[in-house]
């Protein structure tokens, strides 16, 4: 029988906080046409002609504030997830990053070196997006066809609405909520509005009521819908009144219109609407990273206080919590079992 293995895939981080390493990482990341989806010439003009002139130095400074002795939080946490999962499953587990190192190719190679020929690949993103799940699958397929044509890969689908994940996230939030808070904000990574239209096979999503309707075929690929769905399921589990919750989208880049409302603007304005004590969580990320540890915990807190806010309580991601590792195990085992069915 074929030997099976698991590859956990996350976004990736620069090799170090040196400006040149950050530049190399941003170049690979932003030149991905699933991330900046302009034609090559215009993408190169924007990325290499404009963004890479100034952003690497700024981002390197931000990375320095979150970097640990072991390295980038995103990589270190993904390694911790791998180690914990390895202890409770009986197939090899490796990691691969969509950008930079360790690459998806290196992860597959490590599995193949252990005799694996059937891989369950887990893109560590709860919600589907062209710039995350889709590009991971595309890259893995490219690598598989070119380098490992005999290897089979089964992909774990977005799990934004799965009971096991929602229970796990809700419990994790419940434990970390402060005693008193005026609102719980769910801040998701944003995407350009255009990406939502592009991935809608039905051409029906209007980025409005459609995303909140309960049943619509466009939801399979609608990132905005999936973010609202995760939120609604979690607040139901937490028994929180909807009026006490806020959804927003962070980390926009460039001049395009991104999905709204924007987290930074929301943080500045909610104190004037009576939200002085805020709890905030970022469920688009399963592991803490630059976007949560710096953009939300540091910059976001400043924006909230600047707007008149008093207490700001950041709720960490699931990281390597045991209950989350159990969910990862169940999701992987479902797909491992799929191999037996074909
Ligand atoms: C969680 C899902 C993510 C989506 C969707 C996403 C889309 C997206 N991101 C950019 C641009 C940048 N993102 C950056 C960092 C970053 N993004 C995600 C996740 C998603 N991105 C993570 C986990 C991280 C942190 C990586 C780390 O090392 O900790 C950055 C780099 C940092 C910076 O310079 O600010 C950029 C740039 C775009 C353009 C996009 C959708 C089109
Ligand atoms: Fe991003
Ligand atoms: Fe939608």
From TrEMBL:
The keyword Metal-binding applies. GO terms for molecular function: ferrochelatase activity; metal ion binding. Keywords: Cytoplasm, Heme biosynthesis, Iron, Lyase, Metal-binding, Porphyrin biosynthesis. InterPro entries: Ferrochelatase, Ferrochelatase_C, Ferrochelatase_N. One of its GO terms (cellular component) is cytoplasm. Its EC number is 4.98.1.1. Pathway: Porphyrin-containing compound metabolism; protoheme biosynthesis; protoheme from protoporphyrin-IX: step 1/1. Fe(2+) binds at residues 189, 291. It catalyses: Fe-coproporphyrin III + 2 H(+) = coproporphyrin III + Fe(2+); heme b + 2 H(+) = protoporphyrin IX + Fe(2+). GO terms for biological process: heme biosynthetic process. It is found in: Cytoplasm. It is an enzyme of class 4 (lyase). It comes from the Bacteria. Gene3D superfamilies: 3.40.50.1400. Belongs to the ferrochelatase family. Catalyzes the ferrous insertion into protoporphyrin IX. This is Ferrochelatase.
């Amino acid at each position: 029988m074929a030997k099976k293995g698991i590859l956990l895939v996350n976004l990736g981080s620069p090799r170090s906080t040196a400006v040149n390493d950050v530049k190399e990482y941003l170049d690979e990341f932003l030149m991905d046409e699933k991330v900046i989806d302009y034609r090559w010439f215009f993408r190169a003009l924007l990325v290499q002609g404009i963004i890479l002139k100034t952003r690497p130095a700024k981002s390197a400074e931000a990375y320095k504030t979150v970097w640990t002795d072991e390295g980038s939080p995103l990589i270190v946490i993904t390694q911790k997830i791998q180690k914990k999962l390895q202890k409770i499953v009986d197939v090899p587990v490796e990691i691969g990053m969509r950008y930079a190192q360790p690459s998806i190719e290196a992860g597959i190679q490590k599995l193949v070196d252990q005799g694996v020929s059937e891989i369950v690949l887990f893109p560590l993103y709860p919600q589907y997006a062209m710039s995350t799940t889709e590009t991971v699958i595309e890259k893995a397929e490219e690598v598989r066809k070119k380098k490992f044509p005999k290897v089979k890969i089964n992909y774990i689908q977005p799990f934004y609405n799965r009971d096991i994940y929602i229970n796990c996230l809700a419990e994790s939030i419940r434990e970390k909520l402060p005693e008193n808070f005026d609102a719980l904000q769910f801040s998701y990574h944003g995407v350009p509005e255009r990406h939502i239209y592009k991935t809608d096979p039905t051409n029906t999503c209007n980025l409005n009521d459609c995303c909140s309707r309960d049943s619509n075929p466009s939801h399979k690929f609608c990132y905005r819908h999936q973010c609202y769905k995760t939120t609604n399921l979690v607040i139901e589990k937490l028994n929180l009144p909807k009026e006490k919750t806020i959804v927003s989208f962070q980390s926009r880049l460039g001049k395009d219109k991104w999905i709204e409302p924007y987290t930074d603007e929301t943080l500045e304005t909610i104190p004037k609407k009576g939200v002085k004590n805020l709890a905030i969580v970022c469920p688009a990320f399963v592991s803490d990273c630059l976007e949560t540890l710096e953009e939300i915990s540091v910059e976001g807190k400043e924006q909230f206080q600047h707007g008149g806010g008093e207490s700001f309580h950041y709720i960490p991601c699931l990281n390597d919590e045991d209950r989350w590792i159990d969910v990862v195990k169940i999701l992987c085992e479902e797909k491992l079992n799929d191999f037996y069915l074909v």
